[in-house]
Amino acid sequence: APTMPGSGYSDIQIDRRIVNYPKDDVLPILKAENVNEFFVDGFSLGTAHALSIARYFGVGGSGYDDHQCVGVGLNCPYLSTPICAEFQMRCDADDMWLVRHNDTQKWSAAWNYALWDLLFYVPYISPPAKFFGDVWPKWAQACPEQVEQLIRDQTRTVVRGSQGQGCEAMHYTTQSMWGFDPREVNVKNVCVWYAQDDCLSPGAGSPPEHGEWLAKMFQNKQEEADGSSVAGESQKVRLSIRAENVGRGHMTYAPSKGAAYTVEEETIPQTLLQMVKQTKEK
Which domains are assigned to the chain? Predict the structure, then answer.
């Protein structure tokens, strides 16, 4: 999977917009790897990027003629500020106390960078994944190997320094002003999995009403396709929705062996693969 700008070995993009991510970052990879058809899934912040990719490479999108996104998976998704304002929902940006319309190059954004220096470089408290067990204890107790994996991932996130996170994770324009409307997404296979007990503390997850809104949006698209007299079987929308409350909050659908909510290691990628296969068999 491509690493987002400012993370790992990817370059920083000052004041980037998620709407540009498919064309600027994903399209060159698809061309280089000669990928014509694919599906995408995202977790948390990654769901905004997954929606943007599905919009750009989905039916009717700018990149659809050369590279088709045939499915999108959303694991504990969140919504942009404009959608939250339109439908009067809690906004993840508000939970994260982001500075509105902040300029990452001004002195007022210095706390963005100082915070991430603290989170990733101060001994005994870094990286923050060490304390995820305090936020989601049931998940950490059942899946200690996932905690260790997240610690390794977060260590890699700042391999080139924490400045990229200052430009990304705490930046209002990037996080909340996506530059596109998720209602413009048109793909044939969709997973929307959200947790009803998500976002129990500020900034520690995605409000469940965001997942509910997205699920309803895709249900409407499914009903429109099912009711169309001109839509063929290949144009129908296949949809998987899960809204569970198993005490694991934001980490509910992290894959693990033997968890009560999984069946034979069921994951979003596995579910999408099955859905795409069914689409091709019709």
Answer: 18-281 (3.40.50)
Cα–Cα distance for residue pair 123/17, rounded to 1 Å: 33
Q: Rounded to whole angstroms, how far apart are CA atoms 71 and 170? A: 29
Q: Is residue 51 within 8 Å of residue 182, measured between CB atoms? A: yes
Q: Are 102 and 171 in contact (CB under 8 A)?
A: yes
Buried b (16+ CB within 10 A) or exposed e, 165-190: bbbbbbbbbbbbbbebebeebbbbbb
CA distance 192 to 221: 13
- Tens of pLDDT, residue by residue over 83-98, are 999 999 988 655 555 5
Decide: pTM greater than 0.85. yes
